[in-house]
Amino acid sequence: MIDDSSPLGEHAIPLLVAAELQDHLMTATNDLDRLQTLLADACDTLMLRFSSAVEQMQALMGAASDHRIQADELLPVMRSLGAAVTALQFQDMASQLINHTHRRLRSCADQLAREAMGDDEEGLAVVEDAPLRPNPVTQAEMDAGSVELF
Amino acid sequence: MHSILAVDDSASMRQMVSFTLKSAGYNVVEAIDGQDAFEKAASRSFDLVLTDQNMPRMDGITLVKRLRETPQFKSTPILILTTESSDQMKQAGRAAGATGWLVKPFDPNKLLEVIQKVIR
After folding, report:
1. In the predicted model, is pLDDT for residue A59 greater than 90?
2. How much is the CA Rg of chain B, to the nearest whole Å?
3. Where does the source fall among the domains of life (chain A) (predicted)?
């Protein structure tokens, strides 16, 4: 039978509740890991397609310089590639956001386990450090960010 | 041809920055973090440094400080391109000697405009 008491006394979270909360937090961190992998895979594919489009664009620019096609026909394609450059930065921002959230959840799970179950026989329970600063990614849209020259 | 040192720990960001700069005719050298950038900067000079802030081993602001201590980079334009947009971080970048602060995501045309404005 599991002892439902906690080393923190009568007002502390019962051990079973703490264990369940920790399980949820660990599941969430594992889900974030999978999301990170899926995002990276998807972006690798997008980057390959993007590189292929850039190579084709360079060939077309060569044709334009030889007057085989009109240079202004390439403007819409250049604009589209420029927009893709902005959108493809989504992966970088999303990765930072996921990494930050992962560290915070992991730290909560570790702290919860230590508070509910105490330290190991071998010494202090390992608690992953929570990020010291808030998440650096504050942008909510894919519009270009601000520019400030000092 | 102007040479630019582009620093970011994200491979996709390095590709986006390189594509944008190379399309505009710049020569681009990539570095994977501040430490790698500092080592590359020791062996040659650049006309501009464009760096991320949050990176392993050495962050962007530390890189700016270290480069500013190097005579050849005393007046080289250094732009920080980051997801960080707090005034506190911007002021830290300014105090370190950065030339400007750009928040991700960047628009290729705007980035090139800024670079043309600050590069010599």
Report:
1. no
2. 13
3. Bacteria
Min Cα distance A34 → chain B (Å) is 18
Q: Do A43 and A15 form a contact (C-beta atoms < 8 A)?
A: no
**A127 to chain B nearest CA, in Å?**
21
Choose among A85, A91, A147: nearest Cβ to B19.
A85
Q: Taking the alpha carbons of B83, B89, B90, B95 in that order, is the dihedral positive or negative? A: negative
**ipTM value for the complex:** 0.84
Query: From the list B19, B54, B118, which residue is nearest A149 (CB)?
Result: B118
CA distance B69 to chain A (A): 19
Residue whose pair of structure tokens reads 């590359």 in the numeric block: B40
User: Choosing among B7, B8, B14, B19, which should be mutated to test the A contact, i.e. which has the most A CBs within 10 A?
Assistant: B19
Question: Within 13 Å of residue A35, how many CA atoms lie on the same side as its CB?
Answer: 15
Q: In the β-sheet with B27-31, what is the strand arrangement from edge to edge?
A: A147-149, B100-103, B78-82, B48-51, B3-7, B27-31
Radius of gyration of the CA atoms of chain A, in A: 25
CB contact under 8 A, A145 and B105: yes
A74: left (phi over 0), alpha (psi -120 to 50) or beta: alpha
Q: Give tens-digit pLDDT for B45-73.
A: 999 999 999 899 999 999 999 999 999 99
Contacts of B60 (CB under 8 A, 6+ apart): B7, B34, B51, B52, B53, B54, B80, B82, B93, B98
